[in-house]
Amino acid sequence: MDEVASVAELIKNFAVIYIVDITEVPDFNTMYELYDPCTVMFFFRNKHIMIDLGTGNNNKINWALKDKQDFIDIVETVYCGARKGRGLVISPKDYSAKYHY
Amino acid sequence: MATLADSFLADLDELSDNEADILEEEDVDAGNMEEDVDGELAGLESLNYDDLDSVSKLQKTQRYNDIMQKVEDALQKGSENSDHGIVLEDDPEYQLIVDCNALSVDIENEIIIIHNFIRDKYRLKFPELESLVHHPIDYARVVKRIGNEMDLTLVDLDGLLPSAIIMVVSVTASTTSGRPLPEDVLGKTIEACDRALALDSAKKKVLDFVESRMVYIAPNLSAIVGSAVAAKLMGIAGGLSALAKMPACNVQLLGAKRKNLAGFSTATSQGRVGYLEQTEIFQSTPPALRMRACRVLAAKSTLAARVDSTRGDQTGKTGRALRDEIRKKIEKWQEPPPPKLPKPLPVPDSDPKKKRGGRRLRKMKERYAVTDMRKLANRMQFGVPEESSLGDGLGEGYGMLGQAGSGKLRISAAQSKLAVKVAKKFKEKQYGSSGATSGLTSSLAFTPVQGIELTNPQAHAHQLGTGTQSTYFSETGTFSKIKRN
User: Which candidate in A13, A74, A86 is best for mutational testing of the B interface (most B CBs within 10 A)?
Assistant: First the structure.
């Protein structure tokens, strides 16, 4: 998730990325269950948008994505769905087998 | 130009007095022709080809000898007296330069006339040589070297011509239709060659002199193209004011060699550049940019020549500024393109898909449209089990296809809607058909239920669109109120 800055430039026309340190701002830790080292959540006009990633947890992404393009695709899907009024969008890539044994 | 007229006239054996009169008139119009040159042209009227002196008189004229003498003196004196004063026209050397320019043009014309003379004489001996060697001075040198020799292997042409052309000349000479010249004719020809070469060396001297003085005459032009090329340009244009009056496209072509010998490749020939090819700027540009560079060079050097002809800038500063401008332009062309900036992605779904329409698209869509056959197959009669490809309800169902009681027994390929429209346009050409669309259909057919069945020619097979026989929703209907003629 360290290439977030370069991604921010690419998607700046439809998405803005805020990086929040949960140790400094612990106000939302219980509300959104922010306990992992890194969590990505999506909001559109003050509404939380859920993504069906196949992992069982539709609220957030709490692992490191391998590919920058994957992240951009997810953001685009969220944007398109949220603009249409959907609260749940389906991720273009399935992460149910993200832990390859 | 009168000189071209001269050479054409010299070529013609029969000269009428009329032509000579017209020539005289043209001659009078060209104001810078002097008395003795007039006399030279009058000599053309009564052309006696055996006598070289009647053809070429320039070397005998006083003017020629005067100027050559002055040039020799000036060349020996070297370049002194840098104090030229403000009004350069009064300087005797400037007048000499102007005379030299006119003289160099005259010398060139003279050389052409002598070349014609030599060529006419030498035609008896070696007629093909004139088409192989174009340059007059080269021709004269070769003629002098060959002389009356019939066997060219004994003649050494090295250094006179490029070796490829020497080869062609030798080969042509072995099959030439010429015969050796008589002694006196040969003598005259050699004398003419000598004269041509003498004129050529005189021209070189004149050009050298002009070149050495060029920095004082035309400082701006010499700043851009260099004094040698500037001298050549001035010489061939016939003076600084003549050069200044030319448009830049002509300046580019001054001194351009025109002919390419037949049979040699033209792929490597640099077309459309003259003396400007010899400038340092041109030589230092990469070959890909050379044509653009020579156009810029011609334009700026024309500007510099115009400044010089009006003596606007004696110091040459304008010329140096123009030269820097040219250099900067050429450098800019060679810059690599700017690196591509990474563009942010466009907003998804922001632009609605551009749906195209039109005849072409409709025809394309027709290829994938649902056909009448498929429509019939998709529908079923009520209460009647449909036939299927594998029988007994297995396989693909046939629906209404081929059922008894339908108007058509064989489904022919339906005409596309566009074709129908076109057909309606030319309604008068349509003959009244009974409904059968191809000549192979017959009214008689065998059906499984009723055995033999006759098609009803009046029944329109458009069960699909016109279930109620309504023309309002007809697929091929038109506006009812608008009269179609």
Answer: A13
Name residue, tokens 């009520």.
B382
Whether the model pTM is above 0.80: no
Interface check for A7 against chain B (CB to CB < 8 A): the answer is: no
Q: Report chain B's terminal Cα–Cα distance, integer Å.
A: 68
B401-423 pLDDT, tens digit per residue, is 877 665 555 655 555 666 666 66
d(Cα A35, Cα A21) in Å, to the nearest integer? Answer: 12
Chain-chain contact of B348 with A72 (C-beta, under 8 angstroms): no
| Per-residue pLDDT, B441 | 59
A80 to chain B, any CB pair closer than 8 A? The answer is: yes
d(CA B402, CA B456): 15
Q: Give the pLDDT of residue B437.
A: 58
DSSP alpha helix (H) spans, B14-135:
17-29, 35-45, 52-55, 62-77, 92-122, 129-132
- Put simply, the answer to whether B346 touches A13 (Cβ < 8 Å) is yes
- Cα B376 to its chain centre, rounded Å, is 65
Closest residue, chain B, to A9 (C-alpha): B344
User: Using CB atoms, which residue from B342, B344, B348 is nearest to A80?
Assistant: B348
Distances (CA, A) of B425 to B366, B419, B472: 20, 10, 20
